[in-house]
Amino acid sequence: MSIGNFSFSMITDVERQLPFYLVGAGIDFHQELDPHMRPDGYPHFQWIQIKSGSGVFEVEGERHNVGTNQGILLFPDVPHSYYAEESPWIVDWFTFNGANVGEVLKLVHIEKTAVFSVFQDSLFTGIIQKSLKTVRSTVPDKGLRASLLVYEFLVSFSQYAHKIGNEGDVRLYSRLNPVLDHIDENFSQSLTIEDLADVIGVTPQYLCLLFKKIMKQRPIEYLNNVRINKSKDLLLKHPRTKVDEISGMAGYESTSYFCSIFKKVEGMSPGKFRELHLHKRHMIS
């Protein structure tokens, strides 16, 4: 049986000077075949996300059971161990470092090794899959691309991971999750705050409170972020489709409003984004 699909980076001296750099990534890793006892810890930050099965994680004299929709964030040089409790224990993992990692985590009040509940776990899986592909690529700027993926992970982690023990947040997220699914499935349709509130049977005012508590943003901000992310894919997948048509496909009735929000989020117009990224693809190919 293969232990999993993984690779490590050949980190250059230049990459070590970046604020964030990628050390390695693995997907569908059979952790039950590779239990870890690390009396001296591990020299990098590492995120271990459980996909199936369950295991035991021990750190600072505490024993934690970890299973699906959970993960372990390791800080460097902290003694720990982890091993399977239920086989197969399959995980994805993401190893990273950099001078600014600790400071970014500190800003969101994460300062030590801990077990976290994961919301939107497919988002983390996607980042890890892209990281594995980047590690194995031969493009000349892969160090910069990898650095951006680490930053994307840290931003996503601050929004969608909650330290075990914050049960109140977990319950609130469970309440909000149908709304997030509804947005993801219907982003191209006209959606109002009233529509979203109706999904879980609450008032628009209470929905706004839930979003501020869990997502750290208002519902309309979250909806716009989803639509802009979707529109970026559409711009590149349909290079001959006009921007006003992409706007409609992404759920915007007004092209000017779409362009305004896109520039606010991405720092450039949709046309410039398409031109820049299609040019990069052409240069790489």
Notable traits:
285 residues; alpha+beta; Jelly Rolls; Arc Repressor Mutant, subunit A; nine-stranded antiparallel beta sheet; 11 helices; globular
What's the topology here?
Layout: E1 5-8, H1 13-16, E2 21-30, E3 36-38, E4 45-59, E5 62-66, E6 70-74, E7 80-97, H2 101-107, E8 114-118, H3 121-136, H4 142-160, E9 161-163, H5 167-186, H6 193-200, H7 204-214, H8 219-237, H9 243-249, H10 255-266, H11 270-284
Antiparallel strand pairs: 1-2, 2-7, 3-7, 4-5, 4-6, 4-7, 6-8, 8-9
Helix pairs in contact: 3-4, 5-6, 5-7
Q: How large a portion of the residues is in β-strands, by DSSP E?
A: 15-25%
N- to C-terminal separation?
Answer: 35 Å
Residue stretches low in confidence (pLDDT < 50, at least 5 long) are none
* Structure summary, number of beta strands: 9
Helix content: 40-55%
Rg: 20 Å
CATH superfamily membership of the largest domain, which one?
Regulatory protein AraC
CATH class of the largest domain: Mainly Beta
Summarize the main sheet: 9 strands, antiparallel
Instruction: Give the overall average pLDDT.
Output: 90
The overall number of domains is: 2
Describe this structure in words.
The chain is α+β, with helices and mostly antiparallel strands and 285 residues long. The protein folds into 2 domains: 5-165, Sandwich (Jelly Rolls); 168-284, Orthogonal Bundle (Arc Repressor Mutant, subunit A), CATH 1.10.10. Helix content is 48%, strand content 24%. The chain contains 11 helices and 9 strands. It has helices spanning 13-16, 101-107, 121-136, 142-160, 167-186, 193-200, 204-214, 219-237, 243-249, 255-266, 270-284; strands spanning 5-8, 21-30, 36-38, 45-59, 62-66, 70-74, 80-97, 114-118, 161-163. Strands 1, 2, 3, 4, 5, 6, 7, 8 and 9 form a 9-stranded antiparallel sheet that branches. Strand 4 and strand 5 (62-66) form a beta hairpin. Helix 3 (121-136) packs antiparallel against helix 4 (142-160) and helix 5 (167-186) crosses helix 7 (204-214). The protein is globular, with a radius of gyration of 20 Å.
